[in-house]
From TrEMBL:
It catalyses: Exonucleolytic cleavage in the 3'- to 5'-direction to yield nucleoside 5'-phosphates. Belongs to the RNR ribonuclease family. RNase R subfamily. This is Ribonuclease R. InterPro entries: CSD2, NA-bd_OB-fold, RNase_II/R, RNase_II/R_CS, RNase_II/RNase_R, RNase_R, RNR_Ribonuclease, S1_domain.
Length: 733
């Protein structure tokens, strides 16, 4: 043991061991009071709070307090209590709960706060992730170097229901939430379990959370079943993200009452395309066909190509139950084994679906194009069509490849025109993000039998290109009518933040790829070059995903700011009203302007855009969670063998590896790497063995084995295949 020092500990001393002078002590006292705005302290309390132990410094606190009060820097009460005179900032925002110890508040845009505000868990006033709160921002930055504050008022809960697993003890029960950003177990009285048994998954609703209580109290509202079963886990994901399980009875009844008949009067009010060659091209298992393509050669030698979209707003009227439900859902959600549709089946798969050999009402964007795929002119309006053929993507591609079968000449011509449109778009600066999409083969019980990467062929790109053309044309048509002054719903994608792009560029270098970041078109060209380079390589998936994350998020707004990724001055969503509420909004506004209506109030439509963007994010998170669940389950059932992988992340506690064969990601914990002691080199994002000097860095190709899977946490634990302990049996939860 070392010898004890006769000097007192450094509490109450300045750096270097010297007792702090009066000026230093005054600053320390003032900072303390400013960061405890609204609270009063006497001198003894301040000495204790500041942990001052030196008797000389202790004696100096009282005089300094009186001096600061006399100078007006602080206030003094008649009882000799002192408080800050600083004016804090009061703002509203949304909680981003990072970990059990603290959260950030993302301030509302109107406050123009440059950084998120840190709030310690004790100052959150029981606010949870996603809640809206009113906070006080301390006048001075805290020890973290960040703006800090505390919650004054909980304005709105983002959710009061959670999904979790029941743990029952002899005297009480808790529900452990699945949601990773919910850091409190929920207490349940035995009488409020609703019949739930130990280890079952349930939906639980808050009943009380008094200030000062460590845990909220709740009541089980729905028993989902045994943890780990397919239907239970999918229902857990649906409940976790607040996705609806069924339609309200009155909404279903309202949909059933809509007549299938199309009156002659309605047909007469529309442009009739029923005699023109028309077909739909969709996934083989699709039932909702919301877009069709028509084609004919005009007398002047040009070509007429029509993009016909299901006229959903003809059937879904404002202020109806159907409208309210469509707005609330705002989008269809595609989980691994099911679709949760925005509209009831009667509409999505029936009335609005552009099924073959049936007259259907549509909203259309029709182009006259020359052989170079230049648009000579266009027409937008309501139509009636009669589809001649329903193609699955595979069938249409086969007809093009084999140059035979139904409409193979029309399909071939449209494909060539789409290629010209696509080339022109990339020449103007569009970014070519071809993300890897993993699909599962499931048995009748939802068990994953296999997985495959969905291949994008020419036919997919052809349909995409004509939908992009229609969306862009509608947006530009409305913008040009009144130089952007008319309220409209745009799909915008801002230019990327150069700092985030630089971070991505440094990440790509770890995989051996050089990206020269410039501005404007040069950014797009650099990213497109990278996308071409990584095609078919092990790092393709991770770099594509990270490239997308480094971009701004596309959103809906009434502000016509353009779309960076597509290189369009103006863009909207017009082509999928069966599955997206913003497309319904676009149809309504478009018809309003075609009827020479005046511009409506922008704020109302902006609120709808914000809601739609939030719902889109929710759907994306739920879809990702369902894929993640199936990936974990698939690897739990997969063969015990060595897998090739690529290092896609390195942290001080572990190495993240994407298995090349299955595209599933797992983690190797540093504590389990028993061949050496590894230190984390944060600057170069790598681990270095202290003895063997072995380096593990981003982009390394490695061999791994699965050692544990956890369905509840949706995690896969890996180890390096040459680890001495790799003969241990795999753990499955």
């Amino acid at each position: 043991m070392g010898r004890k020092s006769n000097n007192r500990a450094g509490k109450g001393k300045a750096k270097g061991g010297k007792v702090m002078d009066a000026a230093q002590l005054a600053r320390k006292v003032l900072n303390f009071l400013d960061n405890h705005f609204g609270e009063e302290f006497n001198s003894k309390q301040i000495v204790k709070k500041l942990e001052i132990r030196d008797s000389v410094v202790k004696g100096g606190v009282e005089p300094i307090l009186h001096k600061l009060a006399a100078g007006g820097s602080i206030s003094k009460s008649p009882r000799n209590y002192f408080s800050s005179n600083k004016e804090p900032e009061f703002i509203e925002g949304v909680v981003d709960f990072v970990n059990p110890r603290f959260a950030y508040i993302v301030a509302d845009a109107k406050y123009k706060v440059e950084e998120d505000i840190l709030i310690k868990e004790a100052d959150l006033k029981n606010a949870l992730d996603g809640d809206r709160v009113r906070i006080m921002v301390y006048p001075l930055k805290g020890n973290t170097g960040r703006m800090e504050g505390k919650v004054l008022e909980l304005l709105e809960r983002s959710r009061d229901e959670f999904v979790g697993r029941v743990e029952i003890s002899p005297r009480f029960a808790f529900v452990v939430p699945d949601f990773k950003k919910m850091h409190h177990d929920i207490f349940v009285h035995k009488g409020d379990l609703g019949g739930a048994e130990h280890n079952q998954k349930v939906v639980i609703k808050f009943t009380e959370w008094r200030e000062g209580d460590k845990n909220p109290t709740g009541k089980v509202t729905r028993v989902l079943g045994k943890a780990g079963e397919h239907e239970v886990e999918i229902h857990s994901i649906m409940a976790e993200f607040g996705l609806p399980f069924e339609y309200p009875e009155d909404v279903t009844a309202e949909a059933e009452e809509i007549s299938e008949e199309i009156s002659q009067k309605e047909i007469n009010s529309r442009k009739d395309f029923r005699g023109i060659t028309t077909f739909t091209i969709d996934p083989a298992d699709a039932k909702d066909f919301d877009d069709a393509i028509s084609y004919r050669v005009l007398d002047n030698g040009n070509f007429e190509i029509g993009v016909h979209i299901a006229d959903v707003t003809h059937y879904v009227k404002p202020k109806t139950g159907l409208e309210k439900e469509a707005y609330d859902r705002a989008t269809s959600v595609y989980l691994v084994d099911r679709t949760i549709p925005m509209l009831p089946e009667r509409l999505s798969n029936g009335l609005c679906s552009l099924r073959p050999n049936e007259d259907k009402l549509t909203f259309s964007c029709v182009f006259e194009m020359d052989e170079n795929a230049d648009v000579v002119k266009h027409w937008i309006g309501r139509t009636v069509i009669h589809s001649d053929r329903r193609f699955a993507y595979e069938q249409a591609q086969e007809n093009i490849d084999n140059q035979e079968g139904d409409f193979f000449e029309e399909l071939t011509f449209l494909n060539e025109m789409a290629k010209k449109l696509r080339k022109r778009r990339f020449d103007k600066g569009a970014v070519n993000f071809e993300t890897v999409e993993v699909k599962f083969q499931l048995d009748e019980k939802g068990k994953p039998l296999g997985l495959f990467v969905k291949e994008r062929k020419d036919i997919h790109k052809m349909i995409e290109e004509f939908m992009l053309l229609a969306n862009r044309t509608v947006a530009e048509f409305i913008f040009d009518k009144n130089k952007g002054a008319d309220t409209f719903v745009y799909r915008v994608h801002d230019h990327p933040d150069l700092e985030r792009l630089e971070t991505f560029s440094n990440f790509a270098k770890k995989f051996g790829h050089e990206i020269k970041i410039g501005e404007g078109n040069r950014i797009s060209k650099a990213l497109n070059q990278l996308m071409d380079e990584i095609q078919g390589k092990p790092e393709q998936n991770v770099l594509e995903q990270l490239a997308i994350r480094s971009m701004a998020k596309a959103i809906y707004t009434v502000e016509p700011r353009g779309h960076f990724g597509l290189a369009f001055k103006h863009y909207t969503h017009f082509t999928s009203p069966i599955r997206r509420y913003p497309d319904m909004m676009v149809h309504r506004l478009l018809q309003h302007y075609l009827d020479e209506g005046k511009s409506p109030e922008a704020e109302v439509w902006e609120d709808k855009c914000l809601h739609s963007s939030d719902r889109e994010k929710r759907a994306s998170n739920a879809e990702r969670a369902s894929i993640n669940y199936k990936q974990v389950e698939f690897m739990a059932l997969a063969e015990d063998k060595d897998y090739e992988g690529i290092v896609v992340g390195v942290t001080e506690w572990g190495v993240f590896v994407e298995i090349t064969e299955t595209k599933c990601e797992g983690m190797i914990r540093v504590q389990d790497m028993n061949d050496d002691y590894y230190e984390f080199d944060e600057k170069n994002m790598r681990l270095i063995g202290s003895k063997n000097k072995k380096m593990i860095t981003l982009g390394d190709k490695v061999n791994v084995r699965v050692v544990a899977t956890d369905i509840d946490k949706r995690t896969i634990d890996l180890e390096f295949a040459d680890n001495e302990s790799n003969d241990k049996p795999r753990k499955r939860k």
